[in-house]
Structures are given as C-alpha cells and as structure tokens.
Design goal:
alpha+beta, 3 helices, globular
Length: 223
C-alpha cells in the first residue's frame, strides 16, 4: 500500500512537471510569434515601401506658339526721293533745252506758242491737255510748222490742227535740278497736212528729242 502511494505521488509530480514544461514552451512560442509578427513593420520595410516610385500623371509641356512675323507695308523710297516720278514733276523741255523753261501742261498762248524744236521750226499753240500722267501726256491744239522752203528762215509757217502724245519720260540732272522730261512725241492730224508739208517735207512723226535723251544719258551724280 505504501509502495503504490509512493508511485502515485511520483506520477503526479512527473505530470505536474510535464505540464509546467508545456506551459513554459507555449509561453516561449507565443513570445517568439509576437516578435516575428512585429518584425513586419520594421523601419527597413517602411523605407523600402517609401522608396517605391509614386505614379503621377505626366506633365504635358505646352507646344511653343509660332512666332508671329509682323507684316509691314514699308514704302520703297528711292535715295533722297530723287528717282521718284509723278505727273507733277514731269515736264516738256521748251526747245528741247533741259536747262531752259520746264513746261507743265502749257497752254502755249503767247504770240508764237511753245517752242517744240530747238531751231524754232515747230511750235505748239493754244493747247488743251486731256491727259498728263507720269507716263503719258495728250494734248489738242495747233502745231505751227515751218516748211523751210526755200530755207527755214524764209519758209512759210503752217498752222495745223494736231493731237500730240508725249511719252518716254527720262530723268535729267541739270543746273536747274533733277527733273523728268518727255523724250518722245507722236502726232495725229485730224484735218490732214497741207500739200507743202507732205511727203519728204512732212514733220517728224514720231519724233525723239535727241538733246533730251542725250542729257539723260549723262546720268546723275547722286542716284
């Protein structure tokens, strides 16, 4: 009886020891699990998470607006305005003398009229100008023409109704300044020409004013 009790006491003691050991192991495992669980939120992990690239919307760069080129309507002017021509500065050189009287829409109502030739064998008289532009002048009146028969000094002067057209203005630089002069003339004779002025005795038609073109060909010192 005493022996059984002693064995039973040892069994209880052993069971108690095993239970205590089991409890201790459970407590240790529980503590280890908690430590492992806490390691998931370590600073390194947080830093790694922070290092992850953050997706953001792409920044769109606005296209450069095309540069606007200002349009200027600059007037082209000749140096010093010398080469500019208009109707108001285009003249008929009386007697084809560019240093003489520059005629602008001349009425030619003096005793003889306006000398058209340099040798006084042709005059315009009582003229009316229907056109006077920078490129052409058209006038109606009387053309007094010397027949030069037997010579120009003794020849008869014939008044002939005429329509004269002046063209081909040329730029001439003279002592009087820079001007434009008509260098070419053509004639129409509505009533025809008298017999004395027909054939080889007829007036030059068309007529290029040689002295005016010669003066223009000399050029100008300043252009």
């Amino acid at each position: 009886m005493k022996t059984l009790t002693s064995r039973k006491g040892r069994s209880v003691a052993a069971g108690t020891l095993l239970a205590a050991t089991a409890l201790l192991l459970t407590a240790c495992n529980s503590s280890g699990s908690s430590a492992a669980s806490g390691g998931a939120s370590s600073p390194v992990a947080s830093a790694t998470a922070s290092a992850s690239p953050v997706s953001s919307s792409p920044v769109s760069t606005p296209a450069s607006a095309p540069a606007s080129t200002p349009t200027t309507s600059a007037a082209v002017a000749s140096p010093g305005g010398a080469a500019m021509q208009s109707a108001t500065d285009t003249f008929l050189a009386e007697g084809q003398d560019v240093n003489g009287t520059a005629l602008f829409k001349p009425a030619c109502v003096s005793t003889y009229g306006c000398a058209l030739s340099g040798d006084s064998t042709g005059f315009l008289y009582k003229m009316t100008w229907t056109t006077w532009s920078a490129s052409e002048a058209v006038g109606t009146g009387t053309y007094r023409i010397d027949s030069c028969n037997p010579n120009c000094a003794a020849g008869k002067v014939y008044p002939v109704a005429t329509v004269i057209t002046l063209t081909d203005p040329v730029r001439v630089c003279s002592s009087a300044g820079t001007r434009w002069f008509w260098s070419h003339a053509s004639f129409k004779f509505p009533a025809g020409l008298p017999t004395a002025l027909q054939g080889s005795n007829g007036p030059q038609n068309p007529w290029t004013f040689s002295s005016v073109t010669a003066a223009a060909n000399q050029g100008c010192a300043s252009s």
